[in-house]
Amino acid sequence: MRKKDLELALEKIGGWRFPSPKKTYEQYTTPSSIAADLAWTAYTRGDIEGRVVADLGAGTGILAYAAAMLGASTVLAVEIDPDTLRILSLKAEGDPRIHVVQADVGNLVLSSMVDTVLQNPPFGVVRRHADRVFFEKALELARTVYTLHKANPDTRRLLLGIAEKRGFRCVVAKTYNFPLPQVYREHFRRIYYVSVDAYICRRLEG
Ligand code: SAH
User: Fold this and answer.
1) Which residues pair with 142 in a beta bridge?
2) For residue 143, which of 166, 172, 111, 123 has the smallest C-alpha distance?
3) How many angstroms separate the CA atoms of 71 and 48, rounded?
4) How confident is the model over 185-201, as pLDDT tens digits?
5) Are 97 and 124 spatial neighbours (Cβ–Cβ below 8 Å)?
6) How far from 139 is each of 11, 75, 116, 144, 185, CA to CA, in Å?
7) How many other CB atoms sit within 10 Å of the CB of residue 15?
8) What is the pTM of this model?
9) Chain segment 10-51, per-residue pLDDT in tens
10) Domain ranges of the chain
11) Which residue's alpha carbon is at the smallest distance from atom 7 of ligand 1?
């Protein structure tokens, strides 16, 4: 499979949009091009195939699905919102490796670590620090973390500082132009774009 095939496959499955997005949960789907690119980046670094992957704030499941298609052994898709869980569960029926868990990520406890977290959490615009909760939880649960956050210098400093304290080496690998539906902002345009950083964090052993 090539990255483009993954993107096309995700598009073909479709139905990733939130039918009625809830503002408090900051529900916006990762476009298939970005989902495929992020999952592919993780895949080429050996962090997906045969790995246990968690998708925190999985939404309708596009990242979870991408990980499963790239050969993850198990994918945990964690989501808080019951309406979204229904869609996510239907999607998960398409792949037996995807397991759906209802939980508030802030309170999530797992009996063992996962190899990789692949996540696009809330950006913490509506609920301040929601993004940080996801970032810290990902570092707690995984050896390697791929995570998207709104790009700005303060957030970068903050997240990179947290990662260092937790014994991770972390880089901002790329920045995407991410489309947000208008519902999240009073605006004339139907969609507007924000810059979103992709962080890759790896636990330093020893
Ligand atoms: N990861 C998906 C959805 C991103 S939107 C994608 O990339 O398309 C963020 C998701 O996080 C939403 O589905 C929202 O309901 C969920 N969410 C928000 N707060 C949460 C929390 N505290 N615990 C678990 N999920 C949460």
Assistant:
1) 114
2) 166
3) 7
4) 555 567 889 999 999 99
5) no
6) 30, 17, 10, 8, 30
7) 12
8) 0.96
9) 999 999 999 889 989 999 999 999 999 999 999 999 999 999
10) 3-203
11) 30
Compute CA distances 195 → 127, 142, 148, whole Å: 19, 25, 10
Superfamily the domain 3-203 falls into = Vaccinia Virus protein VP39 (3.40.50.150)
Residue type at 44 in one-letter notation = T
User: 194 exposed, middle or buried (CB, 10 Å; 0-12, 13-18, 19+)?
Assistant: middle
How far is ligand 1, taken at its centre, from the CA of residue 58, in Å?
A: 5
User: Cα separation of 142 and 113, whole Å?
Assistant: 6
Alpha-carbon span 64 to 54, nearest angstrom? 7
Q: Is the CB of 106 under 6 A from ligand 1?
A: yes
The closest alpha carbon to 55, from 33, 20, 21, 29, belongs to 29
Residues in the chain: 206
Question: φ, ψ for residue 193 (rounded to 5)?
Answer: -115, 140
Ligand 1 contact via 59 beta carbon (within 6 Å): yes
What is the amino acid identity at position 24?
T
Q: Which residue has the tokens 């939130």?
A: 18
